[in-house]
Design brief:
Chain lengths: 228, 351
């Protein structure tokens, strides 16, 4: 197995981007899942469609929309530019791309976990004097842990493999924004670098296997403790 | 405790409309499935809002549509015990028990945890996970959890219906002792007449989302006698058993009862169907039934094509059930004397 110094950077960057995207998305994903699972409101279907849209759109399309939004002339980009923040073609843009693409997977998994919570538990907690926030922290959160873990693992894995949206908003700059999939893409375009591409593929498989093992272990631990 | 409720709610095709004012420490809500029992429970707990109306617990208004008042469930101090125990699966027995206790202000706490744990015999379970408990243990923990929060009213929504008969009647003494010992008024919801007889003093019967009547357990048992599979169920709490020829002899009224399913414990609760009592006008010469009791007819009542005969002996009484023609032939009237034959095996021990 051969790995160039840029490959090591790509691996580190991939992990960094996937981890940051997952951690940043978690609070919002939990809040959106709670909203969809426990609340009835007008426009709920619209919100569901909007949240799930990235699942059905080609990632390149998402990347292009993000580029329009975050670019110098985009509505968010111009505001950020005035504040001296440049996102496009940085690893942060890759985080946003990964977060956007993986967000529906996170929300769906957490929501499934929340949907399986017996509503009488919530009623019991409230009748025992618990406020909604208290119930959220002491009943809903622990009982959604399995869904949170599943969603986080899926999102992390999806972020590791993110290509289309990332290449549009973050580019493919070795050492700066080049992630594992982008590096493999580079190697695959040149026949002489097949072994390098294969090495990165193996690393990718290894990371995925570790993620799945960690997920299974944590899910098992949560289940033993009675979390759903 | 006084409960005043005047509430209306439209739920799809189901229209709930109730107007009741009842005072008692142990109120029963009786009705078939779909009669609106759970709707009433949810309205009292605050998890369902009436479209219109008012709800008062004692003199405190907990809901009023005209005053736009709706006390949140956590402020109502109404304890809930569900059909299924609904324990927090991620918490130990101990942490389940103290969930409400810790959230109850010190001024409202009126139940001592150690005392309650002893009454409900939960000492050995405290550090266990709730997933490993039996059905009866789970229900006892759920009851203790609700009581430890010192509610001013305990709502028990068919808490026994998920348990088999053996467990069901094991739990009832706990339910009674907890509400009596700690002085917590309760509303007990069930579609079982026997449970109503055991748990309630006054009963509201619901039918199709409306209040049908306010009654007593005895009146309810009489009314449902003809259509119930076991007729009027006599509940007999007996003690002082002695062994006699393979049977257990208990004092009852001026005489005694021989029961095959007895035990030598200090007291036991038996049920006896009104249909298992055979009446004779005169003392029969020979009979296989082990119990032949000379009783006075206290009163008679008629339900559909049946006649209920209230028999008394000393301070005890039983209800027998016969058809009109038999009542006419035996010339049974209040004050007359009859002989009641009951097989020793007709008594079913509940506790």
């Amino acid at each position: 197995m051969q790995l160039a110094p840029e490959d090591i950077t790509a691996i580190r960057l991939s992990l960094q981007i996937a981890l940051t995207a997952t951690l940043l998305s978690l609070p919002l994903g939990f809040a959106v899942a709670w909203l969809l699972s426990f609340k009835t409101f007008r426009g709920k279907i619209l919100l569901e469609v909007f949240i799930n849209l990235p699942l059905t759109l080609p990632p390149v399309v998402i990347g292009y929309f993000l580029l329009l939004m975050l670019g110098r002339n985009g509505w968010a980009g111009s505001l950020l530019n005035e504040a001296g923040i440049q996102l496009i073609f940085t690893w942060k843009a890759a985080v946003i791309a990964s977060a956007t693409v993986g967000f529906p997977l996170l929300v769906r998994s957490i929501r499934l976990g929340m949907d399986s919570i017996n509503r009488q538990l919530i009623q019991a907690a409230e009748s025992l004097g618990s406020s909604w926030f208290d119930t959220l922290l002491t009943v809903i959160l622990p009982l959604s842990l399995k869904g949170i873990l599943a969603g986080s693992s899926l999102m992390f894995a999806r972020s590791l493999g993110e290509f289309g949206a990332t290449i549009i908003v973050a580019g493919n700059i070795p050492g700066l924004t080049q992630t594992i999939p982008l590096a493999i893409y580079d190697y695959a375009s040149s026949p002489s670098s097949a072994s390098m591409a294969l090495s990165l593929c193996l690393v990718s498989v290894a990371i995925s296997v570790v993620v799945l093992f960690v997920h299974e272990y944590l899910a098992g631990t949560v289940e033993k403790r009675g979390g759903s | 405790m006084r409960l005043r409720i005047e509430a209306e709610k439209q739920l799809g095709n189901f229209h709930f409309n109730i107007n009741a004012d009842i005072t008692d420490k142990r109120i029963g809500i009786f009705g078939e499935s779909g009669s609106g029992k759970s709707t009433l429970v949810h309205m009292l707990s605050g998890h369902l809002h009436p479209d219109r109306g008012e709800i008062f617990l004692d003199n405190d208004c907990i809901f009023s549509s005209s005053r736009a008042l709706n006390l949140q469930p956590r402020h109502r101090r109404v304890g809930l015990v569900f059909q299924k125990p609904s324990l927090f699966p991620h918490l130990s027995v101990s942490r389940n028990l103290f969930y409400g206790y810790r959230r109850c202000s010190k001024e409202h706490r009126k139940v001592t945890p150690d005392e309650l744990i002893a009454v409900l015999k939960l000492d050995g379970l405290l550090e266990r996970g709730v997933l490993n408990l039996s059905g009866g243990e789970k229900q006892r923990v759920a009851l203790a959890r609700a009581v430890l929060a010192s509610p001013r009213l305990l709502l028990m929504d068919e808490p026994l219906s998920a348990l088999d008969d053996g467990l069901r009647f094991q739990i009832i003494p706990y339910l009674k002792s907890v509400t009596e010992q700690f002085g917590i008024p309760c509303i007990f919801i069930s579609h079982s007449v026997v449970e109503m007889q055991l748990m309630a003093n006054r009963i509201l019967t619901l039918q199709s989302g409306r209040l049908n009547e306010e009654t007593t357990p005895d009146q309810l048992a009489r009314k449902t006698m003809a259509r119930s599979q076991r007729g009027y169920v006599n509940l007999l709490e007996l003690d002082g058993a002695t062994s006699e020829g393979g049977l257990f002899a208990y004092r009852w009224g001026d005489g005694r009862l021989l029961i095959s399913d007895g035990n030598s414990r200090s007291s036991a609760l038996f049920e006896l169907s009104s249909r298992d009592i055979i009446l004779f006008q005169k003392h029969p010469e020979a009979i296989s039934a082990r119990n032949l009791l000379e009783c006075r007819v206290k009163e008679t009542f008629s339900v559909d094509n049946r006649v209920g005969i209230v028999l008394s002996s000393g301070n005890s009484q039983l209800v027998a059930e016969i058809v009109h023609k038999a009542a006419d032939e035996l010339q049974i009237t209040a004050g007359s004397t009859v002989f009641a034959a009951i097989k020793a095996s007709s008594f079913r021990r509940l506790i």
